[in-house]
Amino acid sequence: MLEQQRDYVLRTVEERGVRLIRLWFTDVLGNLKSFAISPAELENALEDGMTFDGSSIDGFSRIQESDVLAIPDANTFVTLPWADAKAPEARVFCDIHHLDGSPFGGDPRQVLRRNLQRAHAMGLDFLIAPDIEFFYFAPPEPGQPPRVLDEASFFDLTTTDVTGSLRKETIRTLETMSIPVEYSFHEDAPSQHEIDLRHTDALTMADSVMTFRLVVKEVAAAQGVHATFMPKPLEGVQGSGMHLHMSLSNADGNAFYSADDPYNLSETAKRFMAGLLFHASEITAITNQTVNSYKRLVPGFEAPVHVSWARNNRSGLIRVPVPKRANPLATRIEYRSPDPACNPYLAFSVILAAGLRGIEQGYELPAEADSNLFEMGDDALGKLGIEQLPQSLADALRVMETSSLVYETLGEHIFEWFLRNKRSEWRGYKTQVTPFELQRYLRST
Amino acid sequence: MTSDLIAVFPESPPPELVRTLDLAGYRWKSFASADDVTKAEPSDGWTGAIVCADHDIDAAWNFCRALRKRDAANAPLLLLVSGAQLDDLTLRDELFDDFCLVPFHPRELEARLRHLLSYTQSALRPDVDDYGQLVLNLETYQASVDGRPLDLTYMEYELLKFLVQNPGKVFSREMLLSRVWGYEYYGGARTVDVHIRRLRAKLGEEHANLIQTVRSVGYRFGQSRWS
């Protein structure tokens, strides 16, 4: 199997005249990293991996153990549609290992692999379909607020021309890279768009999200447009989320489906949801990892604020969508807090771990919260036992710090580094004096 | 068909080889280097090749490699080596089809050459599978539709190959999983749907319907050739 895969990659490189192979991997914060090798190196790379100095990558090695090994996952080999046709290029995702071959603790892809193996041991596979929102802006200028493309006064071409063709080109590119698109449309906010991907297994989807963000940005940049996955770039309008539609499958099909339940949810699904709700606050620092993420998680903009679930209530953290034509395969849950600036490998890992904990320990699913939570006072919510998600990055880090679930899921290396890095981000933010404060206090105090 | 020309290395082959080829009535042409033989290659390829390795074995290997690089079917290649060179053949099996020790017996060389040419004549065409405008080259792992190469991942290629080789048959997802993935794959039957969806997208709108969904059963590729 592996032998043949390798052969397939090598022959394709030869037959298609690929000149450059880009080895992709992801750092702890979810930035795509890449280095290129020539076809002559490829066979060796597939066999033994390529050594590189990990200390130059944020969150990777400490100086004394700096060399790590990138081993390409031949299954992820595809040619890059945007490369020069005369000098074709290809990419392949890599797993990072220590020189002795053991998995490297700072590699998010290995973290997800490890957590998926736990699910596999329980006979379960984790399927994800994300709805990814993002904004198109005119190229940003330092110190200036983002300029939307939907206002003709700011941008000369008419909206539909630019963003319509951008989206079309983006989808075409995604499809050539084996990332099937389900829907795409203009979102509520000006200049905001959404592309929904069809479900795949979680590892493939994490790779796909990484590729997706690059493709959206590449295609936009080629037309002089800046695409951003910043969670809340504009005040007063919706932010960008990455709602995750999720299910577990087992040998019999969809482990989340039960014909006997009024919502068609199986016991497995309910316990998974219970686990996710119970640990939601602990994992929020990972699913919403920037200072800006918490400007999105506020009432009134279709983003969740409270730890609750409902069948059809978009103010809840977990929504249970009504499946089309009562198709058992379509029974799923939608987790609504994550934003597209997260590291998908780590986010999928902690979500899965929280859900599996619920299954393993038989958590009880709390009652459905079907009223609009945004309109309820804190007292009423308290009576229902409904808590809020962390209100800021600092809050989220404080909860995460005490979580043995997150520690076990991420491993010591990433857990420690992430907390250190994010605390320092928070400190940097806290020292700022904002326009809000100046406007409010400068004269009145 | 081919122009029936045999490529020979080196440029001045041993007289006994020349005699044997001429007596047996083969058309042949000799070359000094890998470059020369590549440049002179007839459009429909060489019928065969005879490479004498007993003087300059490195140049001989280069010559063999040049002949093996082409996409089309490889011309059958007969290697002439001395007994002391037998160890050099190890791990180079892909570079030649048969060999003969020097000094050779002219009858033996002729018999080997005849056997080699007749054996490969039937398999001269590259290992290609096609269905309408869809062509798969099994040798090079390349697929194309309407002459446009398809960018496929390994599993997409394997699935397409399986379907093209079994047109008109309906396969359940489980059957595809066990025949194409070949082991118990975690994604289960959903994995098949994901890959079918990707293949359809890559085949393009015009050809996407080559893969039909058979409701509550599975998938069928094209029509049977015999119906």
Provide structural commentary.
The complex is a heterodimer of chains A (445) and B (227). Helices cover 38% and strands 18% of the residues of chain A. Chain A is of the alpha+beta class. In chain A, helix 3 runs parallel beside helix 9 (344-360), helix 6 (267-278) crosses helix 9 (344-360) and helix 9 (344-360) packs across helix 12. The termini of chain A are far apart. With 227 residues, chain B is of the alpha/beta class. Chain B has a five-stranded parallel beta sheet with strand order 2-1-3-4-5, with helices on both faces. A four-stranded antiparallel beta sheet of chain B has the order 6-7-8-9, covered by helices on one side. In chain B, strands 10-12-11 form a three-stranded antiparallel beta sheet. The A-B interface holds A 1, 4-5, 7-9, 11-12, 14-16, 74-79, 81, 116, 120, 125, 127, 175-178, 180, 198-201, 204, 249-251, 253, 329 and B 71, 140-142, 149, 151, 153-157, 182-183, 186-191, 194, 197-198, 201-202.
* Count of distinct structural domains of chain A: 2
Anisotropy-based shape of chain A? globular
What value does the average pLDDT of chain A take? 89
Q: What is the H/E order of chain A?
A: HEEHEEEEHEHEEEHEEEHHHEEEHHHHH
Output the radius of gyration of chain B: 23 Å
What is the CATH superfamily classification of the largest domain in chain A?
Answer: Glutamine synthetase/guanido kinase, catalytic domain
Measured by DSSP, the beta-strand proportion of chain A falls in 15-25%
Q: Helix count of chain B, per DSSP?
A: 7
Write down the CATH class of the largest domain in chain B: Alpha Beta
Strand content of chain B: 15-25%
> N-to-C terminal Cα separation of chain B, in Å?
31 Å
Oligomer state equals: heterodimer
Largest sheet of chain B: 5 strands, parallel
Low-confidence stretches of chain A: 152-158
Give the chain pair forming the largest contact, with residue counts. A-B, 37 and 24 residues
Low-confidence segments of chain B, given as residue ranges, are: 122-126
Number of E-state strands of chain B: 12
What CATH architecture label of the largest domain in chain A applies?
2-Layer Sandwich
Q: What's the structural domain tally of chain B?
A: 2
Sheet with most strands of chain A:
10 strands, mixed
**Into which percent range does the helicity of residues of chain B fall?**
25-40%
